[in-house]
Amino acid sequence: MLEFVLVVSFVGLVSCQDPNVYWSMDKTLGNQITPDIGNVTIFTFNTSGSFVNGYNGNALRLYQTSDTFNGVGAVADECVFEPANQCNGGLTAAAWLRPHAWSASARLFGTGTSILSIVGFAIRVRSSFLTRELYGEVVLINGTLSTATIDLDLVPLDTWTHLTMVWHETTGIKMYINGTEPTYISPSASSSVSGLLSSLQHFTFGVSSQLELDFDEVKLWYNPLTPTQVMRAVTNVPTTTTTDSMQTTPQTTTTDSMQTTPQTTTTDSMQTVGQTATTNTLQTTPPIIIVNGRACDSLCLGLAIGLPLGLMLIVLVVVCCCCCRNSNGCCACCCGGAGGDDDDEKERETDTAL
């Protein structure tokens, strides 16, 4: 069993490709955040937010503010800033998000400093009385815009939710919530935009003055992940970090011990040994003892009372019979005067003979 678990864990880690850029939000110095994986020069930034307990370690909290860093001049060779030329057939962006308040329109993270479409990618929201949408978009340098829209309520407030956007250069965009592809409000579609401003192209977390959001485990892949890889990315962090043991091995071990051994042991002892012992003691032995004791007491009491009375009755009958046969009226009280009647009859017979 142990060998099987180790093999499955190893295969899962190998199949889950490490991202090209990864912020755990744990590599910090003051207000500076450094990526665990990726170009440190490009993807290190100073935050205007704060650090809170996250999904795994620390999380970055942006409260009605945003973090923007590096422009197009410094990152021209990065996939996220030039998807058409630098990506390997597509790109993937993923993060654990915990929103506390949505805004009417906001860019959660991506390339760009406004709500306008900017070359690169973005994950955005629209929230109003009639519209609650979360959508991913990718914009190419030639003005091609790909979008896909899902329900914003799939990411509830004050709850950690894993969000993934996968863009493929031929099939478009797919969205995933906690590793599962949801029903779309609008599936992937393409259109054209014009007037793209390169001056607005920066990497940004939280473009909105009203958005309140926690970020953790933000990852970028410069290729489109498969659905299987997306699901594995939800539960595994890159193999180059020390958090692998926290999210892979312990969970497997805990599940095995809690769901197999203890439950089996408890069930056997409670349902077999315990119940059998209780049934034999309460339903078999005690009832027999109780019935036999009462029967014995009743029988003994009956014999103790009945035998003397019976013997006395027999003696009385015998005495009375003897008295009636042999006495001259002395047992009239017992025999009803039988002896006196016999004497009178004998006297009448004597008188008649004379």
Structural account:
- The protein has about 350 residues and is α+β, with helices and mostly antiparallel strands.
- The chain contains nine helices and 17 strands.
- Strands 1, 5, 6, 8, 13, 14 and 17 form a seven-stranded antiparallel beta sheet that branches.
- It holds the Pfam family Laminin_G_3.
- It comes from Ciona intestinalis (Transparent sea squirt).
- This is LamG-like jellyroll fold domain-containing protein.
- Keywords: Disulfide bond, Membrane, Signal, Transmembrane, Transmembrane helix.
Task: Describe what is shown at a glance.
The protein is an alpha+beta fold and 354 residues long. It has helices at residues 2-15, 40-43, 83-86, 227-235, 244-247, 249-259, 261-326, 332-335, 338-353, and strands spanning 21-23, 28-29, 32-33, 45-46, 50-53, 58-63, 67-71, 90-101, 105-111, 120-127, 132-139, 144-151, 161-168, 172-177, 186-192, 202-207, 212-221. Helices cover 37% and strands 29% of the residues.
What general form does the structure show?
Answer: elongated
Main sheet specs? 7 strands, antiparallel
Q: What average pLDDT do the residues reach? A: 74
**CATH architecture field of the largest domain:** Sandwich
> Quick one: CATH class of the largest domain?
Mainly Beta
Q: What would you report as the Rg, rounded to the nearest angstrom?
A: 49 Å
Helices, by number, come to 9
The helical percent reads: 25-40%
* Alpha-beta classification: alpha+beta
Ranges where pLDDT stays below 50 over 5 or more residues in a row are 4-14, 237-297, 329-333, 337-344, 350-354
Instruction: Tell me the domain tally.
Output: 2
Strand content: 25-35%
List the helices and strands in order: HEEEHEEEEHEEEEEEEEEEHHHHHH
Q: Write down the CATH topology of the largest domain.
A: Jelly Rolls
Could you state the oligomeric state of the chains shown?
single chain
Number of β-strand runs? 17
Transmembrane segments: 299-319
Domain LamG-like jellyroll fold: 89-228
Region (Disordered): 240-272
InterPro entries: ConA-like_dom_sf, LamG-like
